[in-house]
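> run fold Methionine import ATP-binding protein MetN 2
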Amino acid sequence: MSDTQQQIGTRIEFRNISKVFSNNKKSVTTAVDDVSMTVEPGEVLGVIGYSGAGKSTLVRLINGLDSATSGELLLDGVDVVGKSEAQLRKIRSRVGMIFQQFNLFNSRTAAGNIEYPLKLAGVAKEERRRRVDELLQFVGLGDKGRNFPEQLSGGQKQRVGIARALATNPSLLLADESTSALDPETTQEVLSLLRKVNRELGITIVVITHEMEVVRSIADKVAVMEAGRVVEYGSVYEVFSAPKTTVAQRFVATALRNTPDMVETDDLLAHEGRLFTVELSEDSGFFGAAAAAREGGVKINIVHGGVTTLQQQSFGKMTVRLNGPDTAIEQFYQTLAVTTDIKEIIR
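> ok
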């Protein structure tokens, strides 16, 4: 596409950013609490947390819809904190927004919705038409330009929303729960389009979500928020393979499913033998320990597990049932405990 082409994405720097809300009764709520992190140009950052964690407030700070109480928030070196509305309008012209409920004008066609920000920007009519046609093709809706929102599926509406967000050639895209109103299959289609936007156009993307599967599918880095703070931050591989906080562990468990849940655990414990969950990696030593255990008369059955590849690295967990002499089983456990994470499942 002539206009929609590879560009340099926005660099975002959060420097001790906090946002405090107060009401007339003088009660205070800290929605964002001393956040510091950097998103490099062209990266996709997933911000995840439960309701009330501060995710949406963080997005509103980026585009200046809320102003930080303290700290600095730099977009390509320009601090948006304390800027006037006129200055913020100029900054927002390089920022596209995608919303949970699409926020389309029901009285305008798909093409009309995409054209709207171009009209506001004063783009000439012929150029607007050409740009809208380009964007409809880019998001896979080349034949839907004349359709009104009520004639489109949820996934198609979100594609229109993405095209509208791209209309003015932003270098930063903010997606606030942009897939939570969609079914799983449509969610994957929209995430695939966002990956296309990032890879082909070079746009920096910040995705706000409460679904770890969304982070797994699209993000380079992930920030886990709880009570306004970023409690864990790193590459998707780092956080998924070794979550350190309880909240991150809970989110990761929903996406990976490589350990048995409560019902499965009860079923597994109903059978004879001892159950162990073992972390799998290239140097875990599992197969050597298993071979030695078999020589000692232990029978090993794999009863649950899963391996995941993220950012060209693989990791996973496996649950095994061991039946046999206690001494040989204990040796298996002690051998693996030296090199890898192994836990016995007990009632």
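Residues 12-94+170-255 form a domain with the Rossmann fold fold (CATH 3.40.50.300).
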